[in-house]
Design a protein that fits this description.
Length: 76
């Protein structure tokens, strides 16, 4: 089963929400694990955002190249 970026983003966001609730726990072990999960989730959300920006930049690049090629072919 393949997982796309949107599904992974939803999973990480839900993990972040659960870990934020875990930080409110009385038990120190649960609180420590939740802090680690919160930091990990924030890192993954940052990386997902960078991946969206990279894909957008790549799409703009290919669109520009497509226009250049179309102009050169129509000019012949």
């Amino acid at each position: 089963m393949r997982i796309n970026l949107r599904t992974f983003e939803i999973f990480i966001t839900s993990l972040l929400l659960f870990s934020l609730f875990g930080i409110l726990s009385i038990l120190p072990e649960i609180r420590a694990i939740s802090c680690g999960l919160t930091l990990t989730s924030l890192f993954f959300l940052y990386e997902i955002e960078r991946e969206w920006q990279r894909r957008k930049k790549k799409a703009v690049f290919y669109k520009r190249i497509e226009r250049i090629i179309a102009r050169r072919l129509s000019g012949e």
